[in-house]
Specification:
Layout lengths: L1 H12 L3 H17 L3 H4 L3 E6 L5 H9 L15 E7 L4 E6 L2 E5 L5 H14 L11 E7 L5 E5 L13 H15 L4 E8 L8 H9 L6 E6 L9 H8 L10 E3 L5 H6 L3 H14 L13 H18 L1 H22 L8 H24 L5 H5 L5 H17 L8 H13 L11 H12 L3 H26 L4 H34 L6 H28 L9 H20 L3 H37 L1 H10 L5 H7 L4 H25 L21 E9 L6 E6 L2 E7 L4 H4 L7 E5 L2 E2 L3 H9 L4 E9 L2
Parallel strand pairs: 1-6, 1-7, 2-5, 7-8, 8-9
Antiparallel strand pairs: 2-6, 3-4, 3-5, 10-15, 11-12, 12-13, 13-14, 13-15
Helix pairs in contact: 1-11, 2-25, 12-25, 13-18, 13-23, 15-18, 15-22, 16-22, 17-22, 18-19, 18-22, 19-22, 19-23, 20-21, 20-22, 21-22
Length: 762
């Protein structure tokens, strides 16, 4: 029976079917063997349904393998069945968790092997495993298909499986069903109400359009009397419609298993059952039997593979690009077998490292390594530290313009008064005040130096990891040298910063900014007093003479005289006002100068000297052979990872080359012209069910011929193997006549089966 299935499938798809599809199937298996199916989401057929719904029996009918049968949870791990047509029977069984392969001598050996491997994967407990059993079967009767049998859906908790096991089952099933390139083979017992079938609800969630779900009704011999019409409605895609429709099969019962009936006998029994059934014999026979299920699955898998060719290739090329980038990042820079080669490699790596580090220090980001790694842009990150220093120094500014500050300043000036005559300010007071303010600048500067050292250390580490990640000892040595240099540079920078603070405490400038700023502050205060005087003259009462020019003039004059005496008179408050302006002007000048000097100091002492000192120190290792040997001892984990990536790259490159040799399916043009009718066309007749929506065919008039142009929704005609371009020539053995005549005849057809004759032009 299975050989008939294969012959039917070959006839349906053409004699070159295996030569066209075989390479694709082998390519997909190669990707699965590479464990790339999780990353690529490869096209596959998954068999899913309630426990004891007949899943394993369906696979048995397709493959001829006697799968384990029984009640309860029989399938406790995924079983991947890879079937290929071959002249002789051969089989191998393995698991995804082991490289060991078992070679059965006959199909009868497989049941015990599957049970034994299941116990091994589940560790002998009533548990489940995500690892899969892989069965590779070749025989003259095998169709070229790959299907995956999943554990049955469990709805209720029993003594041997708790909530945890049920959750594991659901997660495992959903993992496969959610893959958008998976064809869901939903197994449904025909003797159950389809509205209560769990697998159809799960399929609806992950495949709402129903474009990748095909229903398989099992156990038709157990349908209760009077329930046949309900099953017929399902088969005709009226109840719970799916775009891929339904197929019903009858597998061998437990009694037939115990009798030891052969697959051939069981297939004959299935065919006899449907032909003699009073209800099912009237249906389109293409909806019934394992033969039609096999051809439907083959067609669906082929279509799925062709449709997903371009997306899979894009994903594969993306993986290749990523692996090549990873290999470039960890590739060795040269041979290290001799002392001379190690010396040259050290010099090369040192020069390369120093060149890149110098670019990082100078803020010249042209090299690919720095462009692709923003964390290596040292000077950009250093500017952040400089701006933080500027903000912290600015935050130490005294509140020069607050009245309380001036009052406090007046008291301090009085406390410091010596032999100065009235009206004269003490220069000593200015020096003491400004020194007190400048002391607050030292902590932010020290913090900036520490941050600059830590940042540079980080960039040195990251940069060398990008340049020579394969040599951890060399990387650690470079890091140690850089850390030592940076520590010394930080100490030198701190000494210079101390000198900057001391110099700023001894006020000096020939910058005209100070004089200009003092004048500006004094003018601003004068302008504020004038504004206040005029505001008072307008809003005030002015002794009952509001609006009078004389009164306004008198009020403004009095206000300005009062301000002049307070600001420029011979008094402690006037001296404090003037001292505040001078202090503010000089503090502004000195703080800007100090921040600039600190930034230049850190730039010069920490960043500017690093490259030269590092290169000079590392060159000293050239003559130390013991260190050179240690430097170029490759990291073991890195070597293993690179070897793994190289193997994966090789396999992916071969897979990519194979994909390049396979032409992706191209959608036919909407305006494609059918070839002229010739005697070389294949004439075939089939029976199609007429439903409430009609045949589901889209027909067009092309030069008087009735040509198939497409299908509407879940079409029985599509399941019946009608193809775009087929020419309708007869309806119920009567010629179609004109296009309009054929359409009128089709519209007048009652529900039920109709005999259609097509011509397929070769």
């Amino acid at each position: 029976a299975l050989s008939r299935v294969l012959r039917y499938t070959m006839a349906a798809f053409g004699t070159d079917w295996k030569s066209k599809v075989g390479p694709w199937l082998e390519l997909l298996e190669e990707l699965k063997d590479l464990s790339l199916d999780n990353a690529l989401s490869l096209p596959q057929i998954c068999v899913a349904g309630d426990q004891s719904s007949g899943k394993s029996s369906v696979l048995e009918a397709l493959s001829g393998i006697p799968f384990p049968r029984g009640y309860g949870l029989v399938t406790r791990c995924p079983v991947r069945l890879v079937m290929r047509s071959a002249p002789e029977w051969s089989c191998s069984v393995s698991t995804t968790s082991s490289t060991q392969t078992i070679t059965p001598k006959s199909p009868d050996d497989l049941t015990a092997i599957i049970l034994r491997l299941t116990e091994t994967l589940t560790q002998g407990q009533n548990e489940l495993s995500s690892d899969a059993i892989i069965i590779r079967l070749s025989s003259p009767e095998s169709p070229d298909l790959t299907v995956i049998d999943l554990p049955g859906i469990v709805r209720t908790e029993t003594s041997e499986r708790g909530v945890r096991v049920i959750k594991h089952i659901n997660n495992l099933i959903n993992h496969y069903l959610e893959e958008d390139r998976t064809i869901i083979l939903a197994i449904i017992p025909a003797n159950q109400d389809i509205a209560t079938i769990d697998i159809l609800e799960r399929a609806r969630i992950v495949d709402p359009a129903g474009e990748r779900t095909i229903g398989v009704l099992t156990k038709p011999d157990l349908i209760g009397p009077g329930n046949e019409e309900e099953v017929v409605a399902v088969l005709r895609n009226i109840r719970k419609p799916l775009k891929l429709g339904f197929v019903m099969v009858k597998n061998r019962s437990q009694a037939q298993v115990e009798e030891g009936l052969s697959c051939q006998t069981v297939a004959d029994d299935e065919e006899t059952f449907f032909q003699n059934h009073p209800t099912f014999s009237c249906l389109d026979q293409r909806l019934l039997g394992s033969r039609n299920l096999a051809s439907s699955l083959a067609r669906l898998l082929i279509q799925r593979i062709k449709q997903q060719t371009a997306p899979i290739k894009r994903q594969l090329e993306g993986m290749l690009s990523s692996i090549r980038a990873d290999l470039r990042a960890m590739s060795s820079c040269g041979s290290t077998s001799t002392a001379g080669q190690r010396q040259r490699l050290l010099v090369t790596l040192t020069q390369e490292f120093v060149r890149h580090l110098n670019d990082c220090v100078r803020g010249e980001y042209r090299d690919r390594i720095i462009v692709c790694n923003p964390n290596l842009r040292l000077y950009t990150r250093a500017l952040i530290i400089f701006h933080e220093l500027q903000s912290k120094v600015a935050a130490t500014a005294p509140p020069f313009r607050i009245k309380n500050f001036t009052s406090k300043l007046a008291c301090q000036m009085e406390a410091l008064r010596g032999r100065e005559l009235p009206g004269f300010m003490s220069a000593q007071s200015f020096y003491m005040f400004i020194q007190e303010f400048i002391n607050a600048w030292d902590p932010p500067a020290r913090m900036a130096a520490a941050q600059m050292r830590a940042l540079t250390n980080e960039v040195v580490r990251d940069l060398f990891e990008n340049i020579a990640a394969s040599y951890p000892v060399l990387r650690e040595s470079f890091q140690a040298v850089a850390s030592s240099i940076l520590e010394t540079s930080e100490h030198e920078a701190l000494r210079l910063l101390e000198g900057l603070v001391l110099r700023e405490k001894d006020p000096f400038t020939i910058n005209e900014f100070l004089q200009a700023h003092i004048n500006k502050l004094r003018y601003d205060r004068f302008e504020s007093s004038v504004d206040a005087a005029f505001k008072g003259s307008i809003l005030g009462d002015c002794s009952g003479q509001s609006g009078s020019w004389q009164a306004t003039k008198s009020h403004i004059g009095a206000s300005l005289r009062s301000w002049y005496l307070s600001a420029h008179g011979v008094s402690s408050s006037a001296n404090a006002e003037d001292m505040s302006a001078i202090l503010e002007a000089y503090w502004t000048l000195a703080s800007k100068r100090y921040v600039d000097n600190v930034c230049m100091c850190l730039d010069d002492r920490i960043l500017g000297t690093l490259c030269g000192k590092l290169q000079e120190t590392c060159y000293q290792f050239v003559h130390d052979e013991a260190k050179l040997r240690a430097f170029f001892t490759e990291d073991r984990a890195m070597a293993i990872q690179r070897s793994r990536l190289e193997k994966t790259l090789d396999k992916l490159s071969k897979a990519n080359a194979s994909m390049n040799n396979i032409q992706a399916e191209r959608r036919p043009s909407r305006r494609s012209v059918q070839p002229p009718l010739t005697p070389s066309g294949l004439k075939f007749k089939l029976s199609v069910a007429v439903e409430s929506q009609g045949l589901g065919l889209q027909l067009a008039d092309e030069e008087g011929r009735v040509v198939t142009k497409g299908f509407r929704g879940a079409s029985q005609a599509q399941l019946a193997e009608i193809q775009v371009g087929d020419i309708l020539i007869e309806i119920n053995n009567s010629p179609c006549g004109s296009f309009q005549s054929a359409i009128s005849t089709l519209k007048s057809l009652p529900k039920g089966a109709v005999q259609l004759t097509f011509l397929r032009v070769s």
